[in-house]
Amino acid sequence: MKSYSSQIMRLTIPIVLQNLLSTAVNSADVIMLNYVGQSHISAVSLAANYASVLFMVFYGLGTGVTMLCSQYYGKGDMRAIDVVEGIALRFSLIVACIFSAAAMFVPRLMMRAFTPEAELINIGASYLRNISVAYLCWALIEIYLATLRSIGRVTICTALNTFAFSFNILLNAVFIFGLFGAPKLGAAGVALATSISRVTELILCMIVSAKSKDVKLKLSYMFIRNKFLFKDFLKMAIPAMLNDVSWGLAFSMYSVIMGQFLGADVVAAYSFTSLARSFGTILCFGVASAGGILLGQIIGENRLEDAAKAAKVLMRITVLFGAIGGLIILALIPAFLHFANLTDAARGYLKIMLFINTYYVMGAAVNTTLIAGVFRAGGDSRWGFICDTIDMWCYAVPLGFIAAAVLKLPPMVVYFLLCTDEFVKWPWVIGHYRSKKWLKNITRDNLFVT
After folding, report:
1. What is the pLDDT of residues 415-446, one digit of tens each?
2. Between the CA of residue 443 and those of 75, 228, 377, 440, what are the distances in Å?
3. 450 part of a folded domain
4. Which of 236, 276, 422, 437 keeps 20 to 30 A from 27, CA to CA?
5. pTM
6. CA–CA separation, 310 vs 313, rounded Å?
7. Is residue 445 part of a domain?
8. In this structure, what is the dihedral angle of CA atoms 171, 160, 242, 194, given to the nearest 10 degrees?
9. Number of structural domains found in the chain
10. Does residue 427 fall inside a structural domain?
């Protein structure tokens, strides 16, 4: 048991640092825009929902890569890993091109989906135009880093992200406030800083790839054909991607509900709440990613009983980190309330939202570890897709719309109801974990025999 704990933590720490840096960038955005105005915070919060959905696409494809590549790495088949990376790149670039084109040419229409307020639409449209380039770079970066992580090379991923995120924070200050003679761009500056840092990170990935002896970033991989791996990718990775997209779109609908029915004060408070929740879930999401990598490698070696034992250790760590995450949010409440440049009404909403999230993170921790970590490690992504889709689209989103638009309940009652989504699915998620139906070796032999 101790061995599994140490292996999980060895993989978890770099991933947590990476997630922490990502959250630090978002924190820097909010902190700096806090001095520009509440409208800029609200507009960026709404516009960033598209990046969140895109992230879910890349995260889903990335976990699909991890599902297959970690098991093939355990099996010792590096050629299969190249093929899987190429398949994922095909999908990620297609989706990124669509989002990038929309952000460049119809950004106002994209903003109109979230808010009717002209000021927020104008600010958000400028943000989307400037971030369109970042979407394309992101498509390549995330798949390559997911492939590296699947073979346990998480430290180099953290190093790349450390530089890119640090550079992003510096550029945020330069373009938001107009430092060193740069134009003072406000919210658009956040997007421009993100695009420049993503281009820089992609260049660094290419340098790492050129020096790597195993996993490389090559567009030529997209043209390698293997019907068996493509079939497996469609069967396992696509449900994972659809799962994360479905969940991400549903979560974006929460912003629609708040923006359309609950008002700008609630949207602004939600921006800070999302940031606090990110800090509270950093440990949990890191454990889920690390656990998925480790379990995949163990299963690929066909040590199924060992994988079941490692999963138990993973769950114990998850519950502990979920409790710690709640305490982190609780500790952040005074700082957020003191710092936030919000109206009195928005500050009142923020306090209640933060208290709700002190326990909400436990639900998110358990479900994320099981659905995105444990189940996917065994190639079982379809079950999670069905579970999350039913939970979000048949329960949480309709409940939110009915509570806000039909019953016109108080904003914080609506928010509380939305935050029941993670706990509603607990009985089914935990039951599926105990059934061990997810525990399967999904690798194939003789893939490249003609």
Report:
1. 999 999 999 999 999 999 999 999 988 888 87
2. 8, 10, 12, 9
3. no
4. 422
5. 0.78
6. 5
7. no
8. 10
9. 1
10. yes
